[in-house]
Design brief:
Rossmann fold; 12 helices; four-stranded parallel sheet; alpha/beta; seven-stranded mixed sheet
Length: 296
């Protein structure tokens, strides 16, 4: 089978299912696992490099209002790759090429490939996507193993934090304007032994105000700008230190959102373990991934 992945989390999932050799094309943002970086890239970013968070937000709003994507699809390359399956998503217009554009391209090919859109909004639905791809690629055994291993790790976290006081947590997905993380993130916070004071499980991330965040009285603030690694998240947090400092939180931590939170793929379980370590370091003493404390 020849597969083109138009979403980073789908690429990660395909490799996790042992289907890396079947993947013939990926996006310019598919950076994990390392082998994915050597594959043909069928998309590119149309936004100018070096924009500030506020400028990125304004550019995204302007393009989406005009019905334009922030990603360009190399349709000719996709044709040359002759995929049997294209994996994309329609959940977030900021995160991928328009699904309508993908469907139109697929139907124009001599042998139209199957198009699957992975659009999870909850942690449970991200697990369901494993089954969806497994059914489409005959990877049932690998899927069952991946689901079982993930469930065991989640159970270890739940047991570790059971009965512990639940700190009040605010998860911030963008800084200018400030966005509160939604979808699966509030569930991860709850599973990790915290109380998300702003986000709603299964609901989209939403724009808020700094006054609203402060009024929620978070004890811990997780800075997780969408698509940024921990080092870049730390830079963003330091740039908004005056805002973060006004929230009255006991702790502010920058994390690798790109790897562990923004993408609803196999590494969400790493994000859960990382959150549990941040919220309850006495019960989960080993940090499974990078997190950077912010000095305010």
């Amino acid at each position: 089978m020849r597969i083109v992945s138009l979403v980073p989390h789908a690429t990660e999932l395909l490799f996790a299912l042992g289907l890396g050799d079947d993947v013939v094309g990926v996006t310019h943002e598919c950076d994990y696992p390392e082998a994915a970086q050597d594959l043909p890239q069928v998309t590119r970013d149309v936004l100018e490099p070096g924009l500030s968070p506020g400028e990125i937000d304004a550019a995204v709003r302007a393009r989406t209002a005009a019905g334009e994507s922030i990603y360009a699809l190399d349709e000719e390359l996709v044709r040359e790759l002759e995929p049997d399956l294209i994996v994309t998503q329609a959940l977030c217009h900021v995160c991928a090429v328009s699904v309508d554009e993908v469907q139109a391209l697929a139907q124009s090919l001599p042998a139209p490939p199957r198009v699957i859109a992975l659009d999870p909004t909850t942690y449970g639905e991200t697990v369901g996507d494993v089954r969806t791809l497994a059914q489409a690629t005959d990877a049932r055994d690998a899927a069952l193993d991946l689901i079982a291993r993930t469930a065991r790790r989640a159970d270890v976290v739940r047991l570790a934090v059971r009965g512990a006081p639940r700190p009040r947590v605010a998860a911030l997905e963008w800084m200018d304007p400030v966005f509160v993380a939604g979808h699966w993130t509030p569930q991860l916070i709850e599973m990790a032994g915290g109380e998300d004071v702003l986000g709603f499980a299964g609901e989209p991330s939403r724009e808020a105000t700094w006054e609203e965040v402060a009024a929620a009285q978070p004890e811990i603030v997780i800075v997780m700008p969408c698509g940024y690694d921990a080092a870049r998240a730390l830079v963003e947090a330091e740039g908004f230190a005056h805002r973060l400092g006004g929230l009255g939180a006991d702790q502010v931590v920058a994390v690798n959102a790109s790897a562990y939170f923004s993408r609803p793929g196999p590494r969400l379980i790493d994000g859960l373990e990382l959150l549990a370590h941040i919220l309850h370091p006495d019960r989960v003493p080993q940090a499974p991934a990078e997190a950077l404390a912010v000095e305010l």
